[in-house]
Amino acid sequence: xxxxxxxxxxxxxSDALIGAVSRSLTDPATALLGRYDQAGRLRYAGRSTVLSxxxxxxxxxxxxxxxxxxxxxxxxxxxxxxxxxxxTVVLVVPEFVAEVRADVSRDGAGRxxxxxxxxRLRDDLAPADxxxxxxxxxxx
Length: 140
Fold this sequence. Notes:
This protein is mainly beta. Helix content is about 5%, strand content about 30%. It has one helix at about 55-60; strands at about 10-20, 30-35, 40-45, 90, 95-105, 115-120. It is globular, with a radius of gyration of 15 Å.
């Protein structure tokens, strides 16, 4: 039976803050991304696909571990969809903005449904320049 090819899902680029990395700070596998909500709380927005070597190298030079004041302290993240196994994460100071390519669909909480691809770090943007959590009017 021939394989049916589905059209690609609509995607857009946007920006998010790096709030944590998976695996370790010296060998990050993925980035956990966040955005501030209207009340000023950093909300989890989604996770990246596996980081490229150039992005990993760029992150190693910039990220620093967060203290107990990080808004995600005590939170656990699932290792994969439908699994109860917790992902090993290191919380980082959420001060670096990353451009991401994301499927436009979101879950009921406003997070990206699918892992996003980190495109580049945005040294030209400050955390206040990132769209608010749940903003669906951003340009694609």
